[in-house]
Amino acid sequence: MEEKQWKGMALAILGTLLWGLSGTSVQFLESAKHINVEWLLEARLLIAGILTIGLAYIRDGKRIFAIFTEPKDIGKLLIFGILGIALAQYSYFKSIAISGVGIATVLQNVAPTLIIIYLFLRYFKKPSVPEFFCIVLALVGTLCIVMQEGLDVSNFNVLALFWGLVSAASICVYTLQPIELLKKYGSTSIVGFAMFICGILSLAMFQQVESEALWDGMTWLGLFAIIILGTVVSFNAYMEGVTLIGALQGSILSSLEPISAAIFGWVLLGNHFTLVGIFGMICIIATVFIIAWDRHRQIKREVLKKLNKEEIV
């Protein structure tokens, strides 16, 4: 395997592992240090946004401000920031507070299946057989996770399901909505501005200037893991890795996030899972691999068709 491939895989894996660690740190700060979700959202968006904009400026200079000369693109940036980044993080934090980092992260990974459903409803794009199988797997996996105590209806946690699926839906917005912006202006500056602007908006909305946290060294370490490692470092590492190995392998490696989050939660925080819950996690994680395989199969088929047409001509 080429050195470029190894480097790309290592960077993508590093990014996903740091995302898992970040989620575990959120659960730690919420449960052990009593930090409130709204303040944590404000701090993460503002600080990570400023740092990410700084990285973009070092790389591209004043060109990163070009988006602010296009009113339509500013509107798209706000939609991406509010319904994508900010809502995804807020709902994810709320989901962690209710169900723990492992379950919250797995529910978030229902997003690829929701994208399939959205494309069908919006553009009448019929899912392939593997995609339809993923929809069923995601449904079964979600039910197993939310009702993992023997699948007893009395244990059905509506809030855990609600915030988990809101988080997944926001990931869909995060994935589909900013494609044109990312191609036109670059990913780092767009994500940085979206985080910073939404950090200001969330501060104005929630007005949580007090964290309500028990401040000590572990609190600062947790914030470092969430804001620096889990946002700035993880994003740039993963995006650089995907640049080297491609989106297909990157999407497969991203499935390590719920696994790492579950392991970190188990080792560091003592989270536990029933066999039914573990089965649900496997079902949802499997959808990432199936979708990636199906995409690869479709691309390969299109390339072969193109080659056959060229040979006929």
Detailed description of the structure:
With 313 residues, the protein is an all-alpha fold. The chain is 81% helix and 0% strand. The protein has 13 helices and no strands. The mean pLDDT is 82. The chain crosses the membrane at residues 39-58, 74-92, 98-120, 132-150, 156-176, 188-206, 218-238, 250-269, 275-293. It comes from Veillonella orientalis. Keywords: Membrane, Transmembrane, Transmembrane helix.
Q: What gross morphology would you assign?
A: globular
SS elements, strand count: 0
- Strand content is under 5%
Which range best describes the helical content: under 10%, 10-25%, 25-40%, 40-55%, 55-70% or over 70%? over 70%
Mean pLDDT: 82
What radius of gyration results from the CA coordinates? 20 Å
Q: Summarize the biggest pleated sheet.
A: none
Continuous helix count: 13
Ends apart, CA distance between termini: 36 Å
In N-to-C order, the SSE pattern is: HHHHHHHHHHHHH
Unreliable parts: none
- The structure class reads mainly alpha
Q: Helices and strands in order, then pairings?
A:
Elements: H1 3-31, H2 37-60, H3 71-99, H4 101-108, H5 111-123, H6 129-146, H7 158-176, H8 179-185, H9 187-206, H10 217-245, H11 247-253, H12 256-269, H13 275-312
